[in-house]
Amino acid sequence: MNSKITLITGGSRGLGRNAALALARQGSGILLTYRTREAEAAEVVAEIERLGGQAAALQLDVGESSSFDTFAAKVRQLLQQKWQRQSFDFLVNNAGVGVYAPITDTSETQFDQLMNIHLKGPFFLTQKLLPLIADGGRILNLSSGLTRFTQPGYGAYAAMKGAIEVLSKYMAKELGARGIAVNSIAPGAIETDFGGGTVRDDAQINQALASQTALGRVGVPDDIGPVIAALLSDGARWINGQRIEASGGMFL
Predict the structure, then answer these.
(1) What range does the domain containing 29 cover?
(2) CB burial class (10 A; 0-12, 13-18, 19+) of residue 175?
């Protein structure tokens, strides 16, 4: 077992939960965050402990950047108490929400919510946590296949993810002196409760997207968590400043 520690935002459900379990199986300690689903976060921690790993959960709303100083202090304290460490190794900026609205109907409130959660949040959370990330560590930012191909109704969401991909390159450049590699992962359509569970629950949409995917189906969380774990494995240490799409070959 290696002695790495990974902090995953939004780790109580969906892709974050799956990634947490995949990383735990890889030997990483897990510090996951949740916004409101404390019981679900506790279950993920318990599941990791049943696997023989170490995990903990902290509450965080990535859309509230004013809370990040307090959160960073809690992370520092938890690292010392649970792992006797002053730093962690990997940061996965995963937490997010989906808003479906055509550009003509997108409200400023919706736009600001997406910006705060998907762009401002990861920017300033990473900034606040950088003193706690070990030299030689890694940062992985969640993007979306929607930055390469388009599906009407996701303009504002995809714009934030496009910004995250550019930001990831700048992070890679600026943090290279510390040996910290930064990449973005862009999942395609996945069967989760994200965005109201449309891909999972609407058979017509599911089939339409599957028909445009080379491997003939939409993704499931088990297709993404292991990719995240692989990108944070020792063998992927030389991948830096890249956008890695995990979509099964959508819209090729």
Answers:
(1) 5-239
(2) buried
Domain-embedded: residue 249: no
46: helix, strand or coil: helix
Separation between Cα atoms, residue 183 and residue 177, nearest integer Å: 16
What pLDDT is attached to residue 1? 42
Give 153-195 pLDDT, tens digit per residue. Answer: 999 999 999 999 999 999 999 999 999 999 999 999 999 877 7
Q: Dump pLDDT digits (tens) for 38-83.
A: 999 999 999 999 999 999 999 999 999 999 999 999 999 999 999 9
How many separate domains does the chain show? 1
Answer yes or no: is 251 within a domain: no
Q: Is the pLDDT of residue 213 over 60?
A: yes
Rounded to a whole number of angstroms, the CA Rg of the chain reads 17
Token pair recorded at residue 123: 């920017």
Q: Which amino acid is at 4?
A: K
The catalytic site residues sit at 157
Structure tokens at 84: 């006797």
| Residue 177, domain member (yes or no) | yes
Contact (Cβ atoms closer than 8 angstroms) between residue 115 and residue 163: no
Domain CATH number, residue 151: 3.40.50.720
The answer to whether residue 176 is domain-embedded is yes
Query: Rounded CA gap, 64 and 97, in Å?
Result: 14
